[in-house]
Design goal:
The complex is a heterodimer.
Chain A lengths: L3 E4 L2 E4 L5 E7 L6 E7 L6 E7 L5 E2 L8 E7 L2 E6 L8 E8 L8 E2 L3 E5 L1
Parallel strand pairs in A: 2-11
Antiparallel strand pairs in A: 1-3, 3-8, 4-5, 4-9, 5-6, 7-8, 9-10, 9-11
Chain B lengths: L8 E5 L4 E6 L7 E8 L6 E6 L4 E2 L4 E4 L5 E6 L8 E9 L10 E6 L1
Parallel strand pairs in B: 1-9
Antiparallel strand pairs in B: 2-7, 3-4, 3-8, 5-6, 6-7, 8-9
The chains are: A mainly beta, B mainly beta.
Chain lengths: 116, 109
């Protein structure tokens, strides 16, 4: 199957700093990518839909100014957690689809963010 | 809104078939049934999907009832590496993928 790569796999940052997470589709073009957040022992929660060349669409309750999403090319979307705080510590996961209808999504390996 | 309901957890003996049920009584005509699984601390992995016919691939089989209101994912010979949370998702067209709580499958030696 198609490969989606996330980087970094884990990151520790100080409170108040910003962290950028990259999501790349390695062998296909993805006009749409999705960002999820997962807290321990919980399911994945969709944060936003990232559309190449346009603004991201955020789910209700997700602060767009805190979680900046950029999808500048068909193979790369980035999520920047700005002014991170300990409560932002979580497992962040991206996914991408090849663009055809009714096809499966491919997920990155996830990024473990710890804010200290 | 929860589109699917799954048991919270299940156990399966190693080497036996694991049958994971999913109810999706409000599924609409253009929505497919997808199954993903998430092994601890990893991103979800696609398993299989189908519309109305039963499907089989190298990982699993998917049995969808004739009325499409429920389905069963079958892992024919469960191994310890199949221990994971299994998510049943209904989605159609270009809908975004949203996750429910899934079924935690524990394969027992």
């Amino acid at each position: 199957g198609a490969v989606v790569s996330q980087h970094p796999s884990w990151v520790i940052c100080k409170s108040g700093t910003s962290v950028k997470i990259e999501c790349r589709s390695l062998d296909f073009q993805a006009t749409t990518m999705f960002w999820y957040r997962q807290f321990p022992k919980q399911s994945l929660m969709l944060m936003a839909t990232s559309n190449e060349g346009s603004k991201a669409t955020y789910e209700q309750g997700v602060e767009k100014d805190k979680f900046l999403i950029n999808h500048a090319s068909l193979t790369l979307s980035t999520l920047t957690v700005t002014s991170a705080h300990p409560e932002d510590s979580s497992f962040y996961i991206c996914s991408a689809e090849e663009g055809a209808m009714n096809t499966e999504a491919f997920f990155g390996q996830g990024t473990r963010l710890t804010v200290v | 809104d929860a589109k699917t309901t799954q048991p919270t957890s299940m156990d399966c003996a190693e080497g036996r078939a694991a049958n994971l049920p999913c109810n999706h009584s409000t599924i609409s005509g253009n929505e497919y049934v997808y199954w993903y699984r998430q092994i601890h601390s990893q991103g979800p992995q696609y398993i299989i999907h189908g519309l109305k016919n039963n499907e089989t691939n190298e990982m699993a089989s998917l049995i969808i009832t004739e009325d499409r209101k429920s389905s069963t994912l079958i892992l024919p010979h469960a191994t310890l590496r199949d221990t994971a949370v299994y998510y049943c998702i209904v989605s159609g067209g270009y809908q975004k993928v949203t996750f429910g709580t899934g079924t935690k499958l524990q394969v027992i030696p």
